[in-house]
Amino acid sequence: MTTEIKFGTDGWRAIIAEDFTFDNVRACAHSVALYLKETGLAQRGLVVGYDTRFASEDFAAAVAEVAAANGIHAYLCDSPTPTPVVSYALLQKKAGGGVIITASHNDARWSGFKYKPEYASSASPETIARLEEALPAILASDVPHLPLAEAQKQGLVEIISPRQPYLAHLGELIDLKALRAAGLRVVIDSMYGAAAGWLAEVLSGGATQVQELHGERNPLFPGLQPEPIARHLGALIDIVKATGADVGVATDGDGDRVGIIDERGEFINQHQVFALLAYYLLEVRGQRGAMVKSLTSTSMIYRLGELYNVAVHETPVGFKFLGPKMIAENALIAGEESGGFAFRHHPPDRDGVISSLYFLDLMARRGRRPSELVAELYEKVGPHYYDRIDIRLEPEQKAQLMERLSHARPERLAGLKVTDVDTTDGFRFHVEGGDWLLIRFSGTEPLLRIYTEVQEQSLVQKLLAAGKELVGLP
C-alpha cells in the first residue's frame, strides 16, 4: 500500500495494480465520505461514475461500497460515462459530491480518482488539501465497506442511467434537429473512451453523415493514447483525408476534452478552438458575458474581450481555479490549453461533447469548414501561432530544474526582449510584441511542459528552443 496519495491538477492518478489498488481507492473514498460528513453534505449523496479503463467499474463499485458503509447514498452509474455527464448528474441529483474513476488522457497503465464538489467542477485546492490531510490515518487503518449487493438491498446504492437527462439538457442548449439536418460530413474519433457513441447518437438521423472510429471499449487503447492532440490523431487525419469529410472530431479518455481536424486533415490547435468557441457564442449566437482563461491559454480571448466589450479573467491552470471563477462571474465560457472548455447554463466543468456540438453548430451556421473559420477568426483578432513540447522527467530532475528556473532572469529569448516574468503558475516570460513563453511542471504527470504563443509563425520553434536552453535540456 502506498504511504502517500497526492491529488494533482485534477485528481489522483497512479499505475493500476502498483499504487492504484482497491485499498488505496477505498482510502480515497473514505476521505471523501468523511469530508461530506464534516461539511454537512453527506445527506445529499454521492454520484459515482467511471470510464472505459481496466476494472474501472470495479473500482467505482468499491467507492460506492465505502460510501454506503458511511451511511451515504451512492448513485452508481450503470455503464462507462463521460466525466461531464457525471458532473451533470451531480447537479441534477443535487448530490453532495461526485467521484469519477478515470485517468482522463493518460495511457492504458493508469487509472485515477477525480472528486467533484457539489457545484460540479474540479475540487478547489482547499478541498483537496482536506482530502489529502485525512489520508495518512485512513491508510493506516481498515476502511469500512458494505458489499455492493447488500448496499443495494439496503437502499444505500442506487444504480442510475444518466444518459437521457444529459441528452435532454443538450437539446435545451443547442438545436440538435437543425444540426442533424445540416448535412455535415463528420468523422468522430472516440479514442476508445467514455464518450464512445455519444456524439454519433446525437448527430445521426438526418442529413448529417457520421463515421465513428475507436467506438468500442478496449482498455488497452491499442495504437493510441487517448489525448486528442495532433500526434495521437493519425487515424482520424487519414480518414478525414480519404473520405473528404468536412471535419474530424476527437474526444479524450473520459470525454471532457475535444480535438478538431480540419477538412484538409490538419489539426486545429486548442487555442484556435477556444477562440472559435468564444467567437461562436459572442458573434454567431449574440451572447454576452465574461470569459475565463487559464494562463496557458490563448491571448486571442483578450482580443475578443476587447472587440465585444466583455471582461476576461485569467487563472492558474486547472478547472479547480477556472470553475469557481466561472461561477463567480457567471461566465459565458471558460477554457484551458489542454482542450477543455465549459459553458454557461451547464456544469462549470470541461465537456468535450457539448464543445464538439458547439463547434459543429458554428460550422453549420456560418456555412464554412474549419480552415475557413480559422481564417475568419484571424480577420478579427490577427494570426496567432502556438506549440507545446512535453519533456518526461526523472523524479530528482524536478527540484533541480525548479531551482534553475527560480534564478532565471533572461533579458532576451530568441532575440526578443523579455518585458515581464509571471510566476503565478510556472514561469511565464512575456516578450516584446505581446508574445509569451511558459515553462511549468504538469500537475498530473511527471512532465515538464514548454508552451509558446506568438503572432509570427517563424518564432514558434525559436522560442521553444530558447525555453529548452533556459532549463538546460538538449
Describe it:
The protein is α/β, with parallel strands linked by helices and 474 residues long. The protein has three domains: 152 residues, Alpha-D-Glucose-1,6-Bisphosphate, Chain A, domain 3; 208 residues, Alpha-D-Glucose-1,6-Bisphosphate, Chain A, domain 3 (3-Layer(aba) Sandwich), CATH 3.40.120; 86 residues, Alpha-D-phosphohexomutase, C-terminal domain (TATA-Binding Protein, 2-Layer Sandwich), CATH 3.30.310.50. Helix content is 38%, strand content 22%. The strands form four sheets. It has a six-stranded mixed sheet with strand order 1-5-4-2-3-6, sandwiched between helices. Strands 16-21-20-19-18-17 form a six-stranded antiparallel sheet, covered by helices on one side. Strands 8-7-9-10-11 form a five-stranded mixed sheet, with helices on both faces. A hairpin with a 5-residue loop joins strand 20 and strand 21. Helix 1 crosses helix 2. The longest helix is centred in the N-terminal third of the chain and has 17 residues. It is globular and about 65 Å long. The two termini are 37 Å apart.
List the helices and strands and how they pair.
Blueprint: E1 12-15, H1 22-38, E2 46-50, H2 56-69, E3 74-77, H3 83-93, E4 97-101, E5 110-117, H4 125-139, H5 148-153, E6 157-160, H6 163-173, H7 176-180, E7 185-189, H8 198-203, E8 209-213, H9 234-243, E9 247-251, E10 258-261, E11 267-268, H10 270-284, E12 291-294, H11 300-308, E13 312-315, H12 319-329, E14 333-335, E15 341-343, H13 352-366, H14 370-381, E16 385-392, H15 395-406, E17 412-413, E18 416-422, E19 427-431, E20 435-441, E21 447-454, H16 459-471
Parallel strand pairs: 2-3, 2-4, 3-6, 7-8, 7-9, 12-13, 12-14
Antiparallel strand pairs: 1-5, 4-5, 9-10, 10-11, 14-15, 16-21, 17-18, 18-19, 19-20, 20-21
Helix pairs in contact: 1-2, 1-4, 10-11, 10-13
